Amino acid sequence: MQTRTFIQIPSISEGRQRGMFCVLLAIVIMLLGASCSAPRSGLVSDSTRQGAELDASYTTLYQLLDDESQVDAILIVKSASAETKTLLREIASSMKDMRDQLKIMIDRDVTLTGAVTGLPKAEADARSSISMATAADLLTADNQEFEILILMTQEKAMSYGHHLARSLARHDQNRNRAESLNRMSAQMKSFHERIRELILSSCVSQADSN
């Protein structure tokens, strides 16, 4: 199996190339949400305070929106088609707005702390490991592979966000917040559908060119 490298410059030493790769890898890992400042893992037990599960769900959604608000930054180091670039920038802008709206909701309710995700430590560790592996795949992919891979990550993120926001809206007794969450869910569903169309279109184009 042929080994791919992210960058090959004959005039740069192998050690320096590895250093550049590590810097870029760190950037993508950060963009994928594997930062040290992430909320704590930890199960929400039946004995915890009332509203703890709702709090954990808000924390998880906020973390997702915060990560996705930076997704277009990967375009600094990787190239994609104009259509994919536009979509990534739209997602980042929309997720930033949703994140800011969610922060206002959390700040206005003293029962929402944003401190714990409710995830078991093993699950949190697994997600971090997936982020690192995905970052490596994105960095070492050529432009055509990168485009498919980044769209696949966004397809998963938007699907998860759509269902999480919708489920949270069903469990939140605050009508205004529930309405806002349903709008967020609908927007992420729309992005999810657009991403799937792009992926299918790209696959068809590749098949036709072979």
Word description of this protein:
The protein is mainly α. It has a single domain (14-204), classed as Ferritin (Up-down Bundle). It is built from six helices and no strands. The protein has helices spanning 14-31, 52-68, 82-107, 121-140, 143-171, 175-209. The radius of gyration is 19 Å and the shape is globular. 26% of the residues are buried. The model is unreliable at 1-27 and 29-38 (pLDDT under 50).
Main features:
0% strand, mainly alpha, 210 residues, Ferritin
Q: In percent, how helical is the residue content?
A: 55-70%
Low-confidence stretches: 1-27, 29-38
Helical segment count: 6
Strand content: under 5%
Tell me the overall shape. globular
- One letter per element, helices H and strands E, the order comes to HHHHHH
Q: For the record, what is the CATH homologous superfamily label?
A: Ferritin, core subunit, four-helix bundle
Tell me which oligomeric state these chains represent. Answer: single chain
Please name the CATH topology: Ferritin
Number of domain modules:
1
Q: Distance between termini?
A: 20 Å
Short description:
With 210 residues, this protein is mainly α. Helix content is 69%, strand content 0%.
Task: Walk me through the topology.
Blueprint: H1 14-31, H2 52-68, H3 82-107, H4 121-140, H5 143-171, H6 175-209
Helix pairs in contact: 1-4, 2-3, 2-5, 3-6, 4-5, 5-6
